[in-house]
Design brief:
By secondary structure, the protein is mainly α. It is built from 7 helices and no strands.
Length: about 140
């Protein structure tokens, strides 16, 4: 199991929510299930085209993503631009990136599957994913 997947699984398990059993997440990951929520198992991760969902306005998504990134404790606010790369421009490590993606999940009330989360490495990547997610609020 890749390190980022393990980190996301542990971070999610430590983020207690009455609706989720954190121990189930760890048991599933330990059994090779790839993680509980966000893994896509048992849930259809459909695009807006497939569900007839309503897209969020791309500019509003950008503004909200920028706000989340600027408010992330390890980011210097002045360095954040609409083109910022999390590692190259903002000097975040892989675990910081995992935490930032989780903050985006909270902001938009979505669960990002691990495979998709590993591809979100910049502000444009995050905007693209959220703007095309039918479940984003």
């Amino acid at each position: 199991m890749p390190l980022n997947t393990v980190a996301r699984t542990l971070a999610r398990a430590l983020r207690f929510s009455p609706a989720h059993d954190p121990w189930r997440v760890l048991r599933t990951a330990a059994a090779g299930g790839g993680g509980g929520h966000g893994s896509g198992r048992g849930r259809a991760w459909l695009s807006s085209e497939a569900t007839g969902g309503i897209f969020l306005d791309r500019q509003q998504v950008l503004d909200r993503v920028m706000n989340v990134v600027k408010n992330f404790e390890k980011v210097e606010t002045g360095k954040v631009t609409p083109e910022s790369h999390f590692v190259k421009d903002l000097a975040l490590d892989s675990l910081d990136t995992v935490e930032l993606v989780m903050a985006l999940e909270d902001e938009f009330a979505i669960e990002i599957p691990d495979a998709a989360a590993e591809k979100i490495l910049s502000v444009p990547d995050a905007v693209e994913y959220v703007a095309n997610n039918a479940h984003a609020k």
